[in-house]
Amino acid sequence: MATQQFNTNVDVNGEVKGTSLDINGSADISGDITSASWRGDAIATTYTAAKVTSITQGEGTLVDTSTGDVTVAATVPNIYGNIIKLLPSDFVTNDDAGVGKLGIGYVDHAGSSYGMKPTNAATELYTFVSIPRGMKATHVDVYDKYNKGVIVYEAHINATTLTSKGTGNCNTTIDITDVSSSGTNFLAIQVTTTATSDRVFGGRVTIAAI
How far is CA 141 from CA 50, 149, 179, 181, in A? Predict the structure, then answer.
């Protein structure tokens, strides 16, 4: 293999293949170097920020294409594609039953009594959903036994306001007024249970890029 020694600036626009280069000056190489070994000092590398245009988790894309901000859905197990799953454990009761009353119970066997059970007829069930950064909530589904009423609110971690974004019934998709994510907001979803025989199974929130 031949050795090429250069003591001045070198401008290489093609391929360097199978040749040993000894460059004492500076080299501007715009082609490819193959089959070579680097024997000089370590090369400092600098990477500039690049805008991310897509990242896929499951079947959906969670990315703000206008800024490159990415929500890494792999760290949020209940996000599947473009939905956020609402699990039984996500539901709690309000205080309508009174102080000291039992709140909610999970009926843990399959069949007609399966699901989240309000243990007092005066309570309603609530679930709270954080919308991923760069996304908006567009639809809500809650699944239950008796098609109970649902109200979807926008609430905030730093305020006491509740703003209705849509109403409907369980087992029917509710097309809410879109709620874009912010640093403080979230969805508060109320299921109007009215008896201890009611059961809620879970639900989902559909999301889309802003």
Answer: 37, 11, 15, 19
